[in-house]
Write a structure and sequence with these properties.
The protein has one domain: Endonuclease, Chain A. 46% of the residues lie in helices and 20% in strands. The chain has helices at residues 13-23, 28-37, 79-94, 104-109, 111-124; strands at residues 48-53, 56-62, 67-72, 98-103. It is globular and about 30 Å long.
Length: 125
């Protein structure tokens, strides 16, 4: 029997269930970013949050634009985490997706600039 949960980039049903759990545990910056993206507020594009892409979960995903948006906290400054992020980003980009990264501070302190950067990317594609 075919699953009712759509599969994306090789993600399995278990990943979809984990994504649901992650959506309930968003950081303050992720909540703010979701508020900026939801309901097609930016360039009339539909975004999803905590979206499974293969073995990973991306913070925000727009299928139409093939865009992934990541919101990174201070833990992403640690070398091991940074190295893992680079490998993860390479995997995602090899699928034909583009990744935009913002820090928690950028999202919380400069939301207008973040929106402008996302809009600029969407217009340029």
């Amino acid at each position: 029997m075919k699953s009712k949960i759509p599969q994306y980039y090789g993600a399995n049903t278990k990943a979809s269930k984990n994504a649901r759990r992650l959506r309930k545990a968003q950081t303050k910056a992720e909540k703010m970013m979701w508020h900026m993206l939801r309901d097609r507020k930016i360039s009339n594009q539909k975004f999803r949050r905590q979206h499974p892409v293969g073995p990973f979960f991306v913070d925000f995903y727009c299928h139409e634009a093939l865009l992934v948006i990541e919101v990174d906290g201070d833990v992403h400054l640690i070398k091991e985490v940074k190295d893992r992020d680079e490998e993860r980003q390479e995997y995602i980009e090899n699928l034909g997706l583009r990744v935009l990264r913002f820090t928690n501070a950028e999202v919380l302190d400069e939301p207008d600039r973040v929106v402008i950067e996302i809009e600029s990317f969407l217009k340029s594609r």
